[in-house]
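Per-record layout

source: Aminobacter anthyllidis
name: Exo-alpha-sialidase
length: 378
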Amino acid sequence: MDGIVRPVSSGRSEAFLASPTVQNHAANLTLLPDGTIACVWFGGTMEGMGDISIYMSRLAPGSDVWSVPEKMSDDAQKSEQNPLLFNAPDGKVWLLFTSQTSGNQDGAVVKRRISEDGGKTFGKVSVLCDTPGTFVRQPVIVNGRGEWLLPVFRCIGLPGTRWSGDVDTAAVLISTDAGASWTMHDVADSIGAVHMNIVPLGGDEMVALYRNRFSEQVLRSRSSDGGRSWSAPEPTDLPNNNSSVQAVRTGDGRIAIVYNHANASMSDDRRLSLYDEIEGDEAETTSAGAEPAGRKAVWGVPRAPLSLAFSSDGGESFPERIDLETGDGFCLTNNSKDGLNREFSYPSILATPDGVIHVAFTYFRRAIKYVRLSSGAV
């Protein structure tokens, strides 16, 4: 895990970014203003623990070595997760991430740091959204009117139970004043649709792709007003295992998506919740009442293979697919220390102007792996 990018086959190169902690998860890639590729993720002992912090590594133009990771957050009382970078129209670079106590995602807030030198250094931490349960994962989009669209998902706790994702919904935070203030716009009929990923199609037309809490299919909705309102999410032809997806529009107009080609119908593996290993005594005191009604989020479906698929019809179908990584994808535990987790998950995808596709993803919750694919390889 030396960060060196090495060719492994025709048109494909790979690297393992240096791992500053036992667990490393939830990568996001961004092309900075000077052409540097930046990767941010979170690391610590285990997701939800107070030592989980944000890290950042850079791949400078012309270099084949990722930089030594830099720690970007350090609140010892909070689990800081799901970072992303945003190149604002004014040249500033924003770092956004969530902050929560233990596994209580329904209490999370969104924090930010802002860079005024193209992502080289960042200012102090401040709160962007203090509505409890607001979570980020996907990039900010600027529409044709100059409005900033930050897709979020709302982690909602049910009375008497600890958060498990059963009734999470999608929303968009919109700013009309360059990020000074934000308003929440909920996506109708979006229970179970999370990690909303907005892909502009041209003009006011946009499509969004979602992770599915019920481990069925990747979901999709459309907007024709620049992202202010959205149709109800509907299933695509891609399976989803209640793990993250990410999509981007390539230079030839296709939508490329990275995801796990798996869902609950393909496996009987299940776990109680994402945080069942760190709940401890607290889980036993949540409630002795009746089990809440409604569908339950499905956790534990294997997170493999990691696949790349393409759509030429705005995300209505994805007939082209290749597997980037294969294995059993075992994820009934988040344990990285003992090497028990074997998932390939939480991918990020970046299409650069030279036609190259860059992908970063979680490898066994132990490291962040980077894959570079030339235009001829896809």
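summary: Confidence is low (pLDDT under 50) at residues 280-290. The chain has no helices and 26 strands.
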